[in-house]
Amino acid sequence: MDRVRWHELTHAYGSAAEVPGRLSRVAWGDARTGGAALGDLGLWLGELAVFDATVEAVPFLWDLAVTDSVTSRPGVIELLRTILEHANPPRIEVQRAAHRAVLDGRGAAEVLARDEDAAVRAAARDLMAEIDGHTCESCHAVRPEKRVGR
Which residues form the domain of 69? Predict the structure, then answer.
């Protein structure tokens, strides 16, 4: 996370300088702390629209989703699904990059769909359905054709 210039990025409410701290709280916090941090991230990165900070955060969200010690994995997976559902019409390149970052994690979603935790499995299956059915106009123009067995 240190390589990302978070202070130069934005989210729904301004500077993304606090995003790494929230990601760390999701990673290392107990259920209450992690859940609160995830709530902030949801509002900042995907609830209203997607932003340049969203693009940078998605790989870290995928890492959190597949880390067994993270207490809020179903919520992290849900945030990834939410990001895929939202747009940023004035900045279509940001929207496309955020969506691509989520779409590129489909292999991780397949692994999560076989997780021991039922809530993780359910969230992952919902995310895979969203990925497979993604029809965003900005992504459709550059999205490679789905392959059989993908």
Answer: 6-140
